[in-house]
Amino acid sequence: SCLFLSPLAAFCIIEIFNDNNPFEIKPGAIVLNYLWFLVLHLLVYALSTRMRVTIITVNALAFILGAAYQAVLTFRGTPVLPGDLLVLGIAMDVAGGYSYKVTDLLVLAVLVLAFVIILAIKLCQVKVREKLWHRAALALAAPLFALLLYATPHMDWMGLSFTLWQPAKQNQRN
């Protein structure tokens, strides 16, 4: 159960940073975001075989990504673009010149992350020793499963579109 609830927490952490109520988003978008976080959980689990490590790692990553996205949106006024990864060093230098405030959204995201970590430590003690080929199959199957939904008629059925190279349009439409 930890593995299936944690992706929802990761999704909520990112949406909190964007000042969105995660449950007011289109149901199809919630499902696809949940599936992407589930895929990420499965990949980390395939590498670590430790549920606690998986949950803490993925939710901490969601926190970092949410904070970074919010910072870029605040400072530049545009969403993160794929090319931003190429100039990450420059962005870090520029970010040093800005002042940061502790916002209610940051506090809420920290509280959700802390709650998830506490639950992971207390409740998620599953550790399975699987053979290497099982773990490799899981690591390969997870992204393939997610790719079945993207850029297919399933997206239209959910009322969503996938416009990777037009993020402004994607944010506006979804």
Question: How does the SSE layout of this entry go?
Answer:
Blueprint: H1 2-17, H2 27-48, H3 51-76, H4 88-95, H5 104-123, H6 132-147, H7 153-157, H8 167-173
Helix pairs in contact: 1-2, 1-3, 1-5, 2-3, 2-6, 3-5
Explain what the structure shows:
With about 170 residues, the protein is an all-alpha fold. About 70% of the residues lie in helices and about 0% in strands. The protein has eight helices and no strands. It has helices at about 1-15, 25-50, 50-75, 90-95, 105-125, 130-145, 155, 165-174. Helix 1 packs parallel to helix 3 and helix 1 (about 1-15) packs antiparallel against helix 5 (about 105-125). The longest helix is centred in the middle third of the chain and has 26 residues, at about 50-75. The protein starts with a helix and ends with a helix. The mean pLDDT is about 75.
